[in-house]
Amino acid sequence: MKRMLAALAAVAFSAAAQAETYNLTMASSHPTVLPWVGQLSTLVVGESNNRLEAMGSEDRIEWTEAYGGSLYGFKDTLEAVGDGLTDAGWVGTLWEGSKMPLQNMTYFTPFVSDDLVATLKIMNELHREVPALQKAWDDQNVVFLGASGVETYHLLTNFPVNSLKDLEGRKILAPGPSANWIKHLGAVPVNGALPTYYNQIQTGVADGMVVILTGAFPNKHYEVAPYVTLVGIGAQMTGGLGINKDVWDGLSDDVKNVLTELGEEYTVAHAEEVMARYQTFLGKLPDAGATVTTLPAEDVVAWADGLPNLAKDWSDANAGKGADEVLQAYMAKVRDAGLEPRIDWTQR
């Protein structure tokens, strides 16, 4: 009996000795009021230890949370994770056009789908299946866990838009790659950001914006641009949850498995939250004084058909990084998912 008790004690001691507590920081340049940040805290941080316990693991994570730019700004999200300023956090790939062009593909393939959940699920699948996408993160010393994004883009203007002709000569806020969405319409792209749009329109710098409603409504852009024209330019991947690769390599298999699982769930959870807010804000716009209309179907078709071959230009510019493989795989998955894109960018 004594030998048996001694053996059991030895086993228990060995198991306890192998259990690890990992001290990790989760951070973001943006506040938790945004779904792609809030779900880092409520889901990934909030559920990680519950999942570990449920699977019978003795490992635990001691989290420190730092959101709202308390550690770094929005232009430094990639370096912050890759260099270890934070162990894990939201990375905004939309600001990393030169370092991570493949992750910006959706901005060069507009009019594919307004379904954010489906789009981001596809992007997660592509990251698992296409080595070039994973390599882009590896090169920055970051492990990708799950995509983030925003819903489809529409027009907010200080003048009514009844047809595409109404946009000719108008100054429209469309920063970065989105400028290419409107140039062929005769509109003049103007650079800016969500916090600056209100003042830019109020002061006459611009006449309108190509924008997401989940960004426009909280910033009250409808006060200076009360004409809301629904277009449906498409949902976009903007970044994702990443963890420092050196940190990742030091984690146990149990912790890796839990974080991988939560990364997938993070994508769906925040995308569903974004879409719920979108529907809520869309419903509130008329009561807020906005005039909401839908661009005629023939004009949407003309807008899409008149676009230059943005995807080919993007693919050619990043040919050495595997862009064409990513584009082909993306459109194949879009078709397989039954999303019925307005433009099949592999057929242009």
TrEMBL record:
Which first-to-last residue range defines the signal peptide?
1-19
- The source's superkingdom equals Bacteria
GO BP annotation list: transmembrane transport
Instruction: Cite the InterPro entries for this sequence.
Output: DctP_fam (IPR018389), TRAP_DctP_sf (IPR038404)
Q: Which Pfam families does the entry link to?
A: DctP (PF03480)
Asked if the Swiss-Prot or TrEMBL record annotates the protein with the keyword ATP-binding, the reply is no
Keyword match Signal: yes
Which Gene3D superfamilies does UniProt cross-reference here?
A: Bacterial extracellular solute-binding protein, family 7
What keywords would UniProt list here?
Receptor, Signal
Question: What's the protein name?
Answer: TRAP transporter solute receptor, DctP family
